[in-house]
Amino acid sequence: MKLTELARTRNDEWSAAGLLRQPGTFSTAQHPVARIDGRDFVLFSSSNYLSLGTHPLVIAAAQEALETFGAGSGGSRLTTGTTDLHVAAEQSFAHFVGSEDAVFFATGYQANLSTIATLGGMCDSLTIFSDSLNHASIIDGCRISRVPLEVFPHGDTVALESLLESRKTEHALVITDGLFSMDGDIAALTELQEVCARHNAWLMVDDAHAIGTLGAHGRGSAEHHGAPLPDILIGTASKALGAEGGFVCCSHDFATLLRNRARSYVFSTATPASAPAAILAALGLVDAQLPRLRQNIAHLRSALGLPDSPSPIIPILVGDETEAVRRSAQLKELGLWVPAIRYPTVKRGEAILRVTVMADHSEEQIDLLVSALQRVSGEQVSN
């Protein structure tokens, strides 16, 4: 069979299962009201939680950097050189979360992938223990690390401890999301740290969705729990900070190792200077934007009858993939952009409508969403 024919067959199978997706095309920035596929929608799918991606000061900082450094970076930071803005962003992000050092990668995906792979390459005797709902970048990093892997049930520290007790390697690395991207639940960081301490295991936390949203000042999981930082903290700028790039927050020694051994740092062209410039501006605006985000989250959760949580990610459980697509389409007819999340992003038969809240949403827009969700489901919303 020709490649094109095989691809068409697989696409038809994917479509028949209700899994074929096409991205919406934006012709505006991700404001609360955005133009998608030629029509204006109230946007409830963006990870621009603090609305910093469209903040005038963030945009101005990026524009100034473009004028000074140009549209591209010219090469890898290690081989071609870095800009003072990249260095300043690393220092500022480390200070923001309270870590000794931070290494800036072009994306959060690269940060996870390269960190896990580098750890796998530096240890002769290592087992990785990964939460079953961890992000795809963690899953892929575990695969390419080529070390033994144990997947523990989501959030189950008892099962994790049992696995750690029976491990046969000298070193152990436990990995978890801090704020899970689909379910919107928060990892039990304190319990995980206690388990890791009892078994001399390292802990790595991906705070991609927690930076800017969790903690009194948006510093992430550790601040939210009143806990020390894990051994490795991954933070991204592409969510609440409204920019682009990922940070590995860690000790200075491990940061030096990553700068010399992490393949996507060494061999990938760096982000343009406009990215770290935007990050530097965004970090200074988190405290000002966070109260409004918290207010909107509380308003939506209360209106939906859901438990209190600082998470801006609110999954509306549907189950059947076809039904989730139907409800998402009905919401679009009502002027609301809420995606149906299906396999392989979530398990088969566990499709959701994934609602995300931004600081700049108005109460009227949130009330419109609540009314529409109840209308398309025909019942009380739950998660």
UniProtKB/TrEMBL annotation:
<dbReference type="GO" id="GO:0008710">
    <property type="term" value="F:8-amino-7-oxononanoate synthase activity"/>
</dbReference>
<protein>
    <recommendedName>
        <fullName>8-amino-7-oxononanoate synthase</fullName>
        <ecNumber>2.3.1.47</ecNumber>
    </recommendedName>
</protein>
<feature type="domain" description="Aminotransferase class I/classII large">
    <location>
        <begin position="40"/>
        <end position="373"/>
    </location>
</feature>
<dbReference type="GO" id="GO:0009102">
    <property type="term" value="P:biotin biosynthetic process"/>
</dbReference>
<dbReference type="InterPro" id="IPR004839">
    <property type="entry name" value="Aminotransferase_I/II_large"/>
</dbReference>
<keyword id="KW-0808">Transferase</keyword>
<dbReference type="InterPro" id="IPR050087">
    <property type="entry name" value="AON_synthase_class-II"/>
</dbReference>
<dbReference type="GO" id="GO:0030170">
    <property type="term" value="F:pyridoxal phosphate binding"/>
</dbReference>
<dbReference type="InterPro" id="IPR015421">
    <property type="entry name" value="PyrdxlP-dep_Trfase_major"/>
</dbReference>
<dbReference type="Pfam" id="PF00155">
    <property type="entry name" value="Aminotran_1_2"/>
</dbReference>
<keyword id="KW-0012">Acyltransferase</keyword>
<keyword id="KW-0663">Pyridoxal phosphate</keyword>
<dbReference type="InterPro" id="IPR015424">
    <property type="entry name" value="PyrdxlP-dep_Trfase"/>
</dbReference>
<dbReference type="InterPro" id="IPR015422">
    <property type="entry name" value="PyrdxlP-dep_Trfase_small"/>
</dbReference>
